Amino acid sequence: MITASDLPDTIPVFPLPGALMLPRARLPLHIFEPRYLAMIEDCMKTKTRLIGMIQPRETPGGEKRLQAIGCAGRLTGFSETEDGRYMITLSGMSRFRVREEVQGFTPYRRCLVEWSPFGRDLSREDETDPGFDRPAFLAVLGRYLTTLNLATDWDSLKEADTELLINSLSMLCPFTPEDKQALLEAPSLSTRRETLVTLIEFALRGGANDEVMQ
C-alpha cells in the first residue's frame, strides 16, 4: 500500500474533461494518443505508478489551464490491444493541489503537487456518512435514472457500501466538468452526497446541460 511518505512531489497529469477519479474508486480508461501512451509507459517504470486525473479549464483569453485540485490514481490494470492502444485501470489514492506545472521534455503534462491538504484520502478505511438516508436517496436517484432512460440493478444499490455507492454515482452520472469538480472537492462523504443530490434535483427540475451550479 502507498503511504504518505511514498507520494512523489511531481506526477504526470491527464487532463480529461468530465472524467472524475475519487479515492478508493476505480476508473477505467482507453489510451490511444501517442503522448498518453508515452505517459503510461513512463508511469510503469516508477515505484508508485501514479497518474493525476485533473479537469482542464480554459481562461477567457483561451489559455488552456488546469483546475487547482485533482486526484491521483495508481495504475493497477493494464492490457494492450493489437493496434497498440492501452486499456488501463486507475485505483484512486489521494487528491492533490497543483502548486505549479513543470516544464520539461515529456510530451505529456506534469505538475508539482501538494498532498497534505488531503491526508485522510490514504486511509484504508471507507469514509462514513452518518446522515445517509438510503431509501430517500434511491427514490431521488430512481426518478433521475428514469429521465435518462437508464436501468440499474436496484438490489445491488440497496446493499452497496455507502462510500462506493456515492462515489461511483458521482463518477458515472453525466454532470458537467464544473459539477464533477465540485464533487471532487467535497471535503467529506456527507458533503459529496449532499452535492450529488443537489445536482440530481437540479437536473430533475429541468436544469440545462450547459448551466453551471453556483
TrEMBL record:
Lon N-terminal domain segment(s): 11-204
SUPFAM superfamilies: PUA domain-like
A GO molecular function held by the record: peptidase activity
One Pfam assignment: LON_substr_bdg
UniProt KW keywords: Hydrolase, Protease
GO biological process: proteolysis
Name by which UniProt lists this protein: ATP-dependent protease
